[in-house]
Amino acid sequence: MTSRLDLAIRVEGVSHAFPSADGKPVLALDDVSFDVPKGQFLALVGASGCGKTTILNMAAGLIQPVAGTVTVDGERITRPSRRTGYMFARDGLLPWRSARDNIEVGLELRGVPRQERERHGTRLLDMIGLSGFARAYPWQLSQGMRQRVAIARTLAIDPDTLLMDEPFAALDAQTKLMLQAEFLRLWERDRKTVLFVTHDLAEAVALSDRVIVLTRRPGRIQADIAIDLPRPRDPERIRFDQRYLRLSEQVWQALKAGEAAP
Ligand SMILES: Nc1ncnc2c1ncn2[C@@H]1O[C@H](COP(=O)(O)OP(=O)(O)OP(=O)(O)O)[C@@H](O)[C@H]1O
Ligand SMILES: [Mg+2]
């Protein structure tokens, strides 16, 4: 049992419907409940349109569920919190700001003094291997570099919880593997709570501690699978591990069953 103190996110009896063009509401989520202990890396997978982004948006305080509650660190979330970082597939970098200024934007918004901002910026640029690109603008960076800057920008505010919506989806296979490994190394240092949405089952199993599989819309929980693979983990090499293959098969079967759900 997880005690209240160890709990990072609680999604309890959440249902959500969106208005549609023909006036009939679209039920996106139907009675979804799960708890995320502090420090857990949880992957959410499921067919397109099953409500994954909606769950992240609720945890981010951008959407209120029509039924049920979402709490983060014991508090019901009604608006975006400083303790939470949100990262998307599209890097969302500000084109008129250099890599460094993009990384420091969250600190600037919080009124962190310039020197301290620069200290954090320099450390993060170094951490993501882009020290030589501090002054480069987004259009001068490859997609992989831009995603690295986006990761650094998310980590700059030192959030307790990271919400990630297909953060590596726009990358080619090789860059993706590299960034997954880099991100895992960063994560393994201080183990923030991560809610990670992906369509890539290999990525879900390779990175996470647990995979929740949602049914097709309206999203319900089809399966909740513990990924008890050892850490630290190399997302590239783990793919040849027999346990990894068995878990991937299990997630795949759950996804198929969830897509056929009534
Ligand atoms: N703002 C909105 N207005 C109306 N309908 C919406 C809105 N946002 C989402 N929906 C609908 O709710 C459902 C769930 O959307 P959501 O974006 O959460 O799915 P998803 O699982 O993230 O899908 P994908 O894998 O394609 O990103 C979809 O059917 C979508 O059309
Ligand atoms: Mg989505």
Plain-language structure description:
- By secondary structure, the protein is of the alpha/beta class.
- The protein has two domains: 4-83 and 161-259, P-loop containing nucleotide triphosphate hydrolases (Rossmann fold, 3-Layer(aba) Sandwich), CATH 3.40.50; 94-158, no CATH class.
- The chain contains eight helices and ten strands.
- The protein has helices at residues 52-59, 99-103, 105-109, 114-127, 143-156, 173-190, 201-207, 242-259; strands at residues 7-18, 26-37, 41-45, 67-72, 75-76, 84-87, 161-165, 193-197, 210-214, 221-226.
- The strands form two sheets. The chain has a six-stranded mixed beta sheet with strand order 6-7-8-3-9-10, with helices on both faces.
- Helix 4 packs across helix 5.
- It is globular, with a radius of gyration of 19 Å.
- The model has no long low-confidence stretch (mean pLDDT 93).
- It binds adenosine-5'-triphosphate and magnesium ion.
- Adenosine-5'-triphosphate is lined by residues 18, 26, 28, 46, 48-54, 217.
Can you give keywords for this protein?
binds magnesium ion; 2 domains; Rossmann fold; 10 strands; 6-stranded mixed beta sheet; binds adenosine-5'-triphosphate; alpha/beta; 262 residues
